[in-house]
TrEMBL record:
This is Fis family transcriptional regulator. Pfam families: LytTR. It comes from the Bacteria. PANTHER family: STAGE 0 SPORULATION PROTEIN A HOMOLOG (PTHR37299:SF1), TRANSCRIPTIONAL REGULATOR-RELATED (PTHR37299). Transmembrane segments: none annotated. GO terms for molecular function: DNA binding; phosphorelay response regulator activity. It comes from Streptomyces brasiliensis. Residues 303-410 form the HTH LytTR-type domain. SMART domains: LytTR. Coiled coil: none annotated. InterPro entries: GAF-like_dom_sf, LytR-like, LytTR_DNA-bd_dom.
Length: 410
């Protein structure tokens, strides 16, 4: 392959317009700076489709020969390893040099890219990339990229706080009308607020109490309900531009009990869905149907991790367990503690479940084949010893203990 394919579909969503406007201005300014270095600055959307290119005219013409230009797609799926596409798959700056590019035509290029991510969902919104022909990039480029996108990330954060405030306001208005368990979630399925009935149903008595409104993204709690993230994404898509939409799904909310219906009601502002109100125990609106095709899609042979500016390819068997630190996931492996390229423990769980991994706690996912010992606490708590040599211990929450014992045969 020596060119990138043309882009398809909608280039950007309207609600990201402010972000792309700021990113375009940043790309144009950076283009002026790198013009003397025979370099090109490109900006893409979250799917790796190029929106604009700036820089040295000669370098731009050379890049255009291989479709490094607007309306082409540079996602990893379409064009293999490259600065833009690879940065969309990981957090932080990424450098791809020479033959590290899958596209042969770029074996004489050095590229560095960084993604801008949605603070709520963790998914990429856009990327900015610097490419230089037949020469190496300055060592300061990765740090410059990190600083350059900080202003855009501030806008994303500001919008997340604004959305949460609106969702919390709608939650409070409707609270008096709902007698049963009721909660408010952001676009990523994280809990912004919940009434006492929902807190009790979700078994949060041992966790820090849910505040009346978790406006700050870092304060939000992720419900430990299998399948909920997929349902929230489905509801977000179905409700776009339709304020009166409602839909429901049946999910295992309480361990050991039958699935509970959850009805989703969108919170909409200016035709943009900002979050969901969720009534538990109620079944109204459009029914949710899982995507059967996703269950049979090809499984990854390697899990991508990230250490400094390098990508680390891990066989699932190398990973003993995964630990979530908010939206960042750490993989504990024979090669040390490595950050997962995929953000969010729910997303990592979907990748690793086919390889014998199971959730044992809202913050931990373990490789059942690597469990060495089990230990019971004074009050009946269960702990997994993953590496007896250093006493590597993973706690098991009460809701997961029965299923774990069944799987391990104890």
């Amino acid at each position: 392959m020596d060119v990138a394919p043309a882009a398809g579909g909608d280039i950007q969503r309207i609600d990201n317009g402010v972000i792309f406007t700021a990113l375009g201005g940043l790309g144009a300014l950076a283009g002026q700076e790198v013009e003397r270095d025979d370099a090109v600055v490109t900006v893409t959307d979250g799917d790796g489709r190029v929106l604009g290119a700036w820089g040295d005219p000669t370098a731009q013409r050379r890049a255009e020969l291989h479709n490094l230009a607007p309306w082409s797609s540079w996602s990893e799926e379409c064009t293999g390893t490259n600065g833009m596409g690879t940065s969309l798959a990981v957090s932080g700056p990424v450098t791809v040099t020479g033959p590290e590019h899958w596209c042969e035509a770029f074996h004489q290029w050095a590229c560095a890219g960084i993604s801008i991510r949605d603070v709520v969902t963790g998914s990429p919104v856009a990327s900015i990339n610097i490419s230089r022909w037949n020469a190496s990039l300055s060592k300061s480029v990765p740090s410059w990229l990190t600083k350059a996108v900080a202003c855009i990330e501030q806008e994303i954060y500001r919008r997340a706080v604004y959305e949460a405030d609106k969702v919390a306001s709608e939650f409070r208005k409707k609270c008096a009308q709902v007698s049963g368990p009721f909660m408010a979630m952001d676009r990523g399925g994280n809990l912004i607020a919940a009434n006492e009935a929902a807190i009790k149903l979700l078994g949060l008595t041992d966790d820090p109490p849910i505040v009346a409104a978790a406006i700050e993204p870092a304060e939000r709690w992720t419900p430990d309900i299998s399948g909920l993230p997929d349902v929230v994404r489905w509801a977000m898509d179905q409700a776009q531009g339709t304020e009166q939409w409602s839909g429901y799904a049946c999910l295992p909310v309480s361990p050991g009990e039958d699935a509970t219906p959850l009805t989703m009601l969108p919170v909409v502002d200016s035709n943009h869905v900002m979050g969901m109100l969720c009534i538990l125990g109620v079944q109204e609106g459009e029914p949710y149907e899982s995507n059967a095709e996703a269950a049979v899609s090809p499984l990854p042979r390697r899990i991508i991790g990230m250490r400094n500016d390098r990508l680390v390819l891990l066989a699932p068997s190398e990973i003993r367990y995964a630990e979530a630190d908010r939206n960042i996931v750490w993989l504990i492996t024979e090669r040390g503690r490595i950050q997962a390229a995929t953000r969010g423990l729910d997303n990592v769980e979907r990748l690793l479940t086919p390889y014998g991994f199971r959730r044992v706690h809202r913050r931990f996912l373990v490789n059942l084949r690597r469990v060495a010992e089990l230990e019971r606490g004074i009050k009946g708590e269960l702990f997994l010893i993953m590496d007896p040599r250093v006493r590597e211990v993973v706690p098991v929450s009460r809701r997961h203990a029965p299923e774990l014992r069944r799987l391990l045969g104890v």
